[in-house]
Design brief:
signal; Outer membrane protein beta-barrel domain-containing protein; mainly beta; eight-stranded antiparallel β-barrel; three-stranded mixed sheet; about 50% strand
Length: about 290
């Protein structure tokens, strides 16, 4: 019953954030339609370490020394941003009770192996990637030295867990076994469709240098999951399945850095990955490229 309740809550959370994202996108579209009644202006595509943006081209009378003056953002306005990318490493917060009957039934391994060490990861090879091709941000507050943005979008969250042990996931029935061969590569990959809702602040440190920080929540729907293995005996093998993984997840997220120079991000999954008693929650830290 508790598993079904958690799944229902996650489904509603995902739907709520998806609706919120849709509303912000709709507001952005309405704002663009309203501006369509004014005379058309030329637009420029700007690509920088702050991201990819579409802006109105500056008037020729404002050109100076071959440079175009950067367009000032206005409070209360929507703006579309393209391409936000996170690359980091995964860890697991494991709160599993390994004597629970449902856990014992799922883990078809020797009794001495039924503990958190069974899922030890290779940290440098357990990679998290978050890709947000399209984001919409709303500038809620603007002063000389302060900016506050509300943003949302849609993207993909990918976990890669590289195991130290020679585990294998099975289907029909779903279980984990201790395999009899040594794998040169053995990972579980889980891919989610992801909807973020973020609050981002920027504080001016010096002229064009801004301290960036923020927090938010993401809701995801599992699109696919697979166990990929490479060994001398079996070659390259990939098995797709749900493996008793939850279909929905929710994460707390945070970021900190210097705008346009370097940003760090972190996330903690609030919900267990599995629906069978194994209580593992990914923790991710890494570098954010571009951003709000």
């Amino acid at each position: 019953m508790l598993t079904a309740l958690n799944s229902t809550i996650m489904k509603h959370t995902f739907c709520t954030l998806a609706i919120a994202a849709g509303l912000l996108f709709a507001q952005n579209v309405n704002a663009q339609e309203a501006e369509a009644t004014t005379p058309k202006k030329k637009h420029t595509l700007t690509i920088s370490n702050k991201g990819i943006h579409v802006d109105e081209a500056a008037d020729s009378t404002k050109l100076h020394a071959g440079k175009v003056k950067e367009k000032e953002e206005k409070a209360g306005k929507f703006r579309t941003s393209f391409s936000m990318l996170d690359v980091g490493v995964n860890m697991l917060n494991d709160n599993t009770v390994y004597t629970d009957p449902s856990v014992v039934n799922y883990l078809n391994v020797p009794a001495g192996k039924r503990n958190a060490e069974l899922f030890d990861l290779k940290p440098s090879k357990s990679i998290n990637v978050n890709i947000y091709p399209l984001m919409v941000k709303f500038l809620a507050v603007k002063t000389k030295n302060q900016r506050i943005y509300l943003s949302t979008g849609i993207g993909f969250q990918v976990y890669n867990f590289r195991f130290e042990e020679d585990l294998s996931y099975t289907k029909n029935p779903n279980s984990i076994i201790m395999d009899t061969i040594k794998f040169s590569k053995n990972k579980l990959a889980v891919n989610y469709l992801n909807v973020p809702l973020m609050l981002t602040g920027k504080t001016r440190l010096h002229k064009k240098t801004w301290l960036t920080y923020g927090a938010g929540i993401t809701a995801g729907y599992r699109l696919s999951s697979w166990n990929k293995q490479i060994s001398g005996e079996r070659g390259k093998k990939k098995l797709h399945g749900n493996f008793d993984l939850e279909d929905y997840n929710a994460c707390l997220t945070a970021e900190f850095g210097i705008d346009g120079i370097l940003r760090f991000y972190g996330s903690y999954q609030l919900t267990p990955m599995y629906n069978n008693g194994i209580d593992q929650r990914p923790i991710c830290v890494g570098i954010r490229f571009s951003g709000i």
